[in-house]
Amino acid sequence: MKNRRVEKSSLIAEAIRHNYLALAEDKININLSGKYGYLESAYYFSQDLENRQETVRPTCKEILDAYIVPVSLEKAKLAGIGIPNYYLTNGYFEPPVIIDPINPFMWRSSIILKSSRKAQIAKSLTRNYTYAICCQELPPLSKVVTFHAVMGWSVSERYRKIAEAIWKIFSIPVATVRIIITDDDGIIFSSISDLAFESLNMRELAYLQERITWAE
Amino acid sequence: MKFGQVARRQGHDVDYLFRPDMYKIPQYDAIFIRALTDPLNSSYIAARIAELHGVRVIDDPASIFICCDKVNMYSHLQGANVPIPDTLFFQKSDLTIKKGAELLESIGSPFVLKAPNSSFSMYVEKIETAEAFVKIGHRFLRRADRIVVQKFIRSEYDWRVGVLGGEPLYVCQYTIPKKQWKVLTYVENGRIIYGPVKAFELENANPRLLETAVRAGSAIGDGLYGVDLKQVGDDFVVIEVNDNPTIAANEEDRKAPLLYEKVVRYLMKERG
Questions:
Q1: Is residue B225 part of a domain?
Q2: Inter-chain contact B49–A71, Cβ cutoff 8 Å?
Q3: Sorting pLDDT into bands at 50, 70 and 90, what band is B196?
Q4: Cys-Cys link to B130, which of B10, B97, B188, B218 (CB 3.0-4.6 A)?
């Protein structure tokens, strides 16, 4: 156990030493930070490479496509991935829904199952009806699940197909993917968010080690 | 409203879409966004959904995410050799008294500190001491992981050149109010101080002004931009390029009677 901890910390130290920049099999730069929030360090890291005319995954545009929920839903839909019905609203919604705020100040999503506090929730998540919210309708008897996706792979075999599709469509190498599992065990895509490189487990780190070489 | 009137006069149907109507975007030939743009606002979603569906759009997503981040915007201008004041980017580890003192020496005192996602002259401060560099720098770094330091250029007005598809569209001067150094200044009681807008005919504008503005627009993309410039001797330097520029009746359009027609014609080109 102790050895595994040492191994993990040395892998993370190596990633930090290389600014999380690796090369994939196809020699394309991969920004593996996992925390690609708009105007954060990893976002700027990709931007710097792009502005030096170097190829990088993800680009700033790919980051925004993945992290802005309605855009990610639309892009997934156009790529043939199942998504829930969704709508943008200034406040009105009908539970059960997953709500993602569309504003520069809030990121955390909420799952609203009952109507009882609808008005207060709408007011709060729209910051007094100033900003929009994105509502994804939850099908009856469905479950909301998240999993780690690492360059198109997941520890869980069940999620490998969608992890691979997400990597192809969005180019986000290290991500938390939210999905909805329907009552007939179908998987529909819901969102992509941060997954800090440091949060990867040993199996995920080992998988990455096989797929990349650290860039100098 | 005027855009709608002009488009109808040209034989087009015009609808006004609001946030809950975004699902209708793929049904249209073109979208003209007139709302505060930011990648984290719904305006960006409208732009990107339009682009994903091959609908022509002003402002296009790339113009929004480049112009709304001054680090990216200045990097594009630098990459295209567009004249801008001396500009440097910094992160948290750079915010030291020593670095502030070095900057006051090298770039000049005062200099200007900008948060990358500032607009309407907000989060733009004049820095006169190393202590202010550290203090205000930390405040701006709450909004982003980088900040912009730029040489201060004093002037009585900014030139604003509207550029559309690589062509000048209108020219005006934004006067800087007396005792201020920015076009817009927010004072304590919430009031905004701004000076008058003076419009000029394109034909009478300095060709070097127009040429510099067009180069700046082209460094960002092929859309609609409001390029701010200052005159230094006989030359012009670009202060910034804005997507979604203000177009107010009797101000920007005063000496550009074809402004609205040109925007509508640009939007109605072939889709894609």
A1: yes
A2: yes
A3: confident
A4: B97
Mean pLDDT (10-residue bins), chain A, 216 residues: 70 91 91 97 97 96 98 98 97 95 89 90 92 96 97 97 97 98 97 97 94 89
Nearest to A190 by CA among A175, A179, A174: A179
Of B127, B104, B65, which is closest to residue B75 (Cα–Cα)?
A: B65
B262 found inside a domain? yes
Contact between chains at A39 and B79 (C-beta distance less than 8 A): no
A-contacting residues in B 119-158 (Cβ below 8 Å): 143-146
End position of a domain, from candidates B66, B96, B112 = B66
Q: Are B133 and B206 in the same domain?
A: no
- Report the distance separating Cα A138 and Cα A86, nearest Å: 9
Residue B25 to residue A88: CA distance in whole angstroms: 13
Please check whether residues B179 and B125 belong to one and the same domain: no
**Interface test mutation site (partner A, options B19, B36, B38, B40, max chain A beta carbons within 10 A):** B40
Do B253 and B178 reside in the same domain of the chain? yes
Residue at B21 is within a domain: yes
Nearest to A193 by CA among A179, A171, A176: A176
Q: How far is A212 from chain B (nearest CA, A)?
A: 27
Strand pairing partners for A100? A134
Are residues A90 and B62, on separate chains, in Cβ contact within 8 Å?
A: no
Rounded CA-CA distance B117/B182 in Å is: 17
> pLDDT at residue B1 above 50?
yes
Q: B141 and B49, same structural domain? A: no
pLDDT at B270: 43
- Check CB contact of B17 with chain A, cutoff 8 Å: no
Domain shared by B198 and B116, yes or no: no
The Cα–Cα gap between A142 and A119 comes to 24
- Nearest residue of B to residue A65 by CA position? B48
Q: Tell me: do B121 and B169 sit in the same domain.
A: no
Q: pLDDT digit string (tens) for B58-99?
A: 999 999 999 999 999 999 999 999 999 999 999 999 999 999
Q: Residues B172, B260: one domain?
A: yes
pLDDT digits (tens, 9 = 90+) for B206-232: 999 999 999 999 999 999 999 999 998
Contact flag B79-A51 (C-beta cutoff 8 Å): yes
If one counts the domains in chain B, the total is 3
In chain A, which residues touch B (CB < 8 A)? Answer: 38-41, 43-44, 47, 51, 60-61, 64-65, 68, 70-71, 74-75, 78, 87-90, 102-104, 131-132
Looking at the structure, tell me whether residues B144 and B160 fall in a common domain: no
Its domain, for residue B52, covers 2-66
Q: What is the structure's pLDDT at A4?
A: 64
Is A44 within 8 Å of B79 when comparing Cβ atoms?
A: no
What percent of chain A is helix, strand and coil (3-state, nearest 5)?
35, 25, 40
Assigned domain for B72 exists = no
